[in-house]
Design goal:
The protein has about 425 residues and is an alpha/beta fold. About 40% of the residues lie in helices and about 15% in strands. The strands form three sheets. A six-stranded mixed beta sheet has the order 4-5-13-10-11-12, sandwiched between helices. Strands 8-7-6-9 form a four-stranded parallel beta sheet, with helices on both faces. It has a domain of about 210 residues: Rossmann fold, CATH 3.40.50. The termini are far apart.
Length: about 425
């Protein structure tokens, strides 16, 4: 069976390019490009055989198919030769039930997809393995690429630095000054990337990196590069596979640059087209009030869209006012009967703390998604009998300063309902018993 994929303008211009061409936007209309697969070729293998193949690969522990991304190689990037693949066993992340938290927020069947249980601690690994593998293959073929560059709010930089280091390719990281957690900043530094701290916000960094990567020797790694979507779309595929090839009723996820929701939709639509599922879940995107352009556009039925100036948020990874993948995301929301909800700083901090009380250790972005799910359940949009998956995009350990400030009472959050600090007492059984 011969599989193939290529780049194609998302606006339907008909412009096509090979996946290893260094082009990120349509030269005819300026639209973003998507990876398009030869679905007719993929259909030659029946749905049951795809399920059996993926189930077989899920049990592997070594080799490229041990990766949750490359286990779906035929659906992701079939042209990349195996010897060029750069994998750190990304994907295959846990899908865990959270019934205690679910009961507290009005969603009895709540599940959390722990995408932060990955090599660099976020779902960005899924897309970066694909992008760096393609660049690695290009270099092996003699292409004069000297570095890979990205703008980041933290997680993209960590993923790029790790995978580029594994491949021996220089990485250039542009970060907004003083807007990234120390835990996130140290990751690309430790991996040897060239880290530049710009006196601007993420949107400003994005403008600079787009201009920088006009140099053909520097490859762009941000999510406007459609190769990232191909790895990230495996999140939805994994969720369905973990439920025994059944789609949940809802998938709720935090939304910043909107590449994640775009990728999620791609994976689920491919499964539907190939007959592995017979229905689509609904999708809910969650934004913070301090950076809510997608929410505002949704309120107008996506008729009006205006970038905003993103203000400081505890959820720094989605503190983005001009999302690059807006057009892609709108198409997904329309196809999936999607909704967009916004969340305040107080609410996301309290929901993080509540979730942690049920055994999770949530990053603030996951807190945004959880509170949006709670709000939608309160409004009756999410029904009590529906199965809901919240995507946790990053490991909470990347944001321990935010949690420390909350429990130490140094946070701007006023209520602090779940604050918990150690009690200092003398070293005696009597003192311990008195304080129990």
């Amino acid at each position: 069976m011969k599989e193939n994929s290529w780049l194609e303008c998302i606006r339907g211009c008909g412009v096509k390019h090979a996946i290893d061409e260094m082009i990120y936007q349509c030269e005819r209309c300026g639209g973003l490009l998507d990876v398009v697969h030869d679905v007719e070729a993929l259909k030659r293998r029946p749905a049951l055989e795809w399920k059996e193949l993926f189930a077989q690969r899920a049990g592997l522990r070594t080799g490229i198919f041990a990766s949750g991304v490359w286990a779906k190689k035929e659906w992701v990037c079939p042209q990349v030769p195996e010897h060029a693949i750069v994998s750190l066993n990304e994907g295959n992340t846990p899908l865990i039930p959270a019934p205690r938290l679910g009961r507290q927020i009005g969603i009895p069947e709540l599940w959390v997809k722990q995408c932060g249980n990955s090599h660099s601690g976020s779902f960005k690994d899924l897309g970066m393995t694909v992008l760096v593998s393609v660049v690695n293959a290009m270099i092996k073929q003699g292409r004069a690429i000297k570095a890979i560059a990205c703008a980041s709010t933290g997680d993209t930089s960590a993923a790029l630095a790790a995978y580029a280091a594994a491949a021996g390719i220089p990485a250039i990281i542009l970060l907004p000054h003083a807007k990234v957690s120390p835990e996130q900043l140290i990751q690309p530094l430790a991996n040897g990337a060239r880290v530049l701290s710009l006196d601007t916000d993420f949107d400003g960094c994005m403008r600079v990196v787009q201009e920088l990567t006009q140099d053909p020797a520097i490859y762009l790694a941000n999510s406007m590069n459609s190769l990232r979507m191909e790895g990230q779309k495996t999140v939805g595929i994994e969720i369905v596979q973990q439920f025994g090839w059944q789609a949940p009723d809802w998938i709720v996820l935090p939304a910043g640059n909107l590449g994640n929701v775009s990728a999620l939709g791609k994976g689920l639509l491919l499964m539907l087209e190939l007959g592995l599922i017979d229905r689509l879940p609904r999708i809910a995107c969650a934004q913070v009030q301090n950076a809510n352009p997608f929410y505002l556009a949704y309120r107008s039925g996506f008729k009006n869209y205006h970038p905003v100036v993103a203000h400081a948020s505890l959820a720094s990874a989605i503190q983005i006012g001009a999302p690059v993948s807006y057009e892609r995301a709108v198409k997904v929301m329309q196809r999936f009967a999607g909704v967009v909800e916004q969340v305040g700083e107080e609410e996301l901090a309290e929901l993080c703390a509540l979730a942690d009380r049920s055994g999770l250790y949530c990053c603030p972005q996951t807190g945004v998604a959880l509170d949006a799910a709670r709000s939608l359940a309160t409004q009756g949009i999410i029904k009590p009998n529906e199965r809901v998956v919240v995507i946790s995009t990053a490991n909470g350990l990347k944001f321990s300063q935010m949690k420390t400030a909350y429990h130490a009472g140094r946070s701007d959050v006023r209520a602090l309902k779940y604050r918990n600090m150690p009690v200092e007492i003398e070293a005696s059984v009597e003192a311990v018993m008195k304080n129990l």
